[in-house]
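Input:
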Amino acid sequence: MNLRATPCAIGIAALALLSMLSACNRVQGDSTTTAPIRGLPSEDMIAAVPLGEVAGAPDGSVAALSIANPYGDNPQAIQEGKQLYIKMNCAGCHAYNGKGNMGPDLTDTYWRYGGLPIQIYKSIFEGRPKGMPAWGTALPPDDIWKLVAYIQSLGGSMSVSDYEHARQGDQPGEQIAYALQTEAQPESKPSPVVSPPVSSAQPPAKSAIAPAMTSEAQRAPPTSTKLKSPSPTPNAGEPHS
Amino acid sequence: MRYRVFRRVVAFAQMHVSHRCTIALFCLELLTAISSSWSYAQIPVLDNLSSSASLTGATFNLEPNDPPGEWHGQARDYANTRYSSLNQINAGNVSKLRIAWTFADGTLGGHEVAPLVVDNTMYVVTPFPDVAYALDLTKAGEPIKWTFKPNPSPTAEGKACCDTINRGLAYIDGKLIYNLLDDHTIAVDAKTGKQVWRTKMGNVETGETMTMAPFVVGNKVLVGDSGGEMGVWGWIAALDVASGKELWRAHSTGSDERVRIGNDFKPFYDWMKGKDLGISTWPAGMWKHGGGAVWGFVSYDPQLNLIYYGTSNPSPRVPDQRPGYNLWSSTIFARDATTGMARWAYQPTPHDRWDYDGVNEDLLMDLPINGQVRKVLVHFDRNAYAYTIDRATGEVLVATPFAYQNWSSGIDMKTGMPIVNKDKEPHPDIKLVDVCPPDIGGKDWQPSAASPRTGLVYAAIFNICMDVTDHKAGYIPGTPYDGMDMHRYPAPGGNLGEFMAWNPATGKKMWSVKETYMTMSGVLATAGDVVFYGTADGWFRAVDARSGKVLWSQKLGSGVIGQPMTYMGPDHRQYIAIYAGVGGAATVRADITALKPVNFPAGGNALYVFSINGDSMSSGPGQLTVKDGAAATSRESSNSTQH
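Output:
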């Protein structure tokens, strides 16, 4: 049974309605309307985010983790994210309170694939082994970011400013003995032209972001410890939708 | 002392008056209670009235009559009695039970299996990744003979609704047959641990998994699927034991052809008669994802050549999305064991609104009811009613509640239909409070046992309620087609668990033991007049089969949701075996935090094996059998690696 396309919303500006209707066509189910407070990060930026902590990766790769949710903590985006969370059956696995059942608890601070906004985005977009579907084929990026906003509102995720803690599995507020200074640019507006995300892992090509790669993602060995030249992903474009 | 006994008796009397016990019975209880060292919720009157006679006159066909010291299938016999004729361990000496040996398998899913014992070898299978082990019982330390790793797909871990469990192996003709979570049925050579065949039965990407224990009838092995929360199209199938080839498959919804309903199909009640009810009792097309998974135990009557099993809840779990009876979900089926054609069916909970399912086991016996011996099956449904059903016709003979419930006011014995309390029907987006039992029922999958010596059935049951809010669900392949948002908590009394003896002829509870935590373990009954069960907080207990007195308990390293079994070792000692490894539906945290103090174990994976005094060839002095020369060598090598 397909999700029915119900009237998207009422009482919003005609312009918003138009843009929203186009979203309705792309997505099964209700669309969401709230506009981001900053531009969506490009696919290159997202592709530069490594899956977990890759052995031998230079510290520079953490810069890619600092991408903030373009919706911030916009309450309307969170509300729309919550509706999507129920409508897309997320609640069936992660429970209506987010505390997990078939799927992991989203309100604690343990994240198998990282608890930063961009990491949660990637887990939803790409899917993950052990049953997490790849939603990049069913939802546009702005809806996925709204889901991320809702999950962030549940309190278990890591704040962008804590990405160094998150990378090491530390809790925010815990002491970190060595200096972090330079690379941290929390909440930095992700400029469209990315300063090279220095990653040891090859930025996944477009096809690699597609759902098919998910079960392989864990097994892929770190390709090289050598710094890659920051070439943008060749096939960068719209994610599958 | 007298006063305390008196207070207990009064409390007991109040409890039982509320259960509508007769005054006469109460007086007997009063007398015996005062004259014995009797404790809460036990009825010593049974001891005094009859020390060896069957209390119901029930008789059991114990085919296939496997060797008394062995255990070849999860239910031990076709009738699903889980009864062993061994009596070395008995009510008189069970208090001396001690741990003889243990085995840990390293996995953390819920451990719901009973080990098998064949030819002095023990066989176990773990939760995902479904690894099988053979342990040599003839050698000290029960060493591993072989390990078989089937490598199921990790995707299955995220598709199983209720933990990555496995309900066990079946042994037949030198093969161990079991199901993998990723929808394969496999046969492994019991001697060598090598795979004999592997048959793909479904597609795990769609949310279908397999958890049930295969059941062998003749040269066929019966298996079914799981995924009532995932919108699967449920089925049971028969495979050829020798080759793994599929012989027939019967779906739980859809056309009569798909359900294997033909001219021989004669349900007892009129409302289940008609053409293609597996389609017409659903809104258009919804039968295709209507659930009706088959993941419980199967039983078999060799005289009638019929198999019995139940189907799961309808999908989605939001009833307002699927008006109609939703046949043949939440249904008990009788099928011809050879052809798979349905003979009769009975749906205990039509249009199942609470996920009461129908998968619980059907225990077969011949039972005098009102002076006439009837061939019956006894079925403790999740809906909290115990049904005694004529297994030749599907007629309900007895139906009374065995656990606390408020969703209905009884069963109409003319139609077999429950009388539903309208104010306990959930509707979308409305929070409905105090619905009892909850989705996991008055009893879940955990199988009961019966003893021919007492004629009683023994079961671990629940005492739980829920608040529930339905949310409309859409079908998205591979995700839950569910919509049920609930919070579970103890029903009146405050205990979550209970272990009981049941009279299936009268539909009455004979005695029970209340447990603070959930009781989701299988039950073992033995000729020693002891019955065994475990609790989710890790207690394993032996109970007098007649009086209900707890004779022995041992706290284990994790919660017990396994199925206890017994075997005779090569040393001619009787052993009792049970897995400790909580998981499955027994780990809902919301339930547990309702209890103070919270004392709930983590997962585990240890098999515990007990004997009288813990005697075995695997413990005590003289166990180091390494020869002098070998010991010296190993000391040298350990020295050489210490830098």
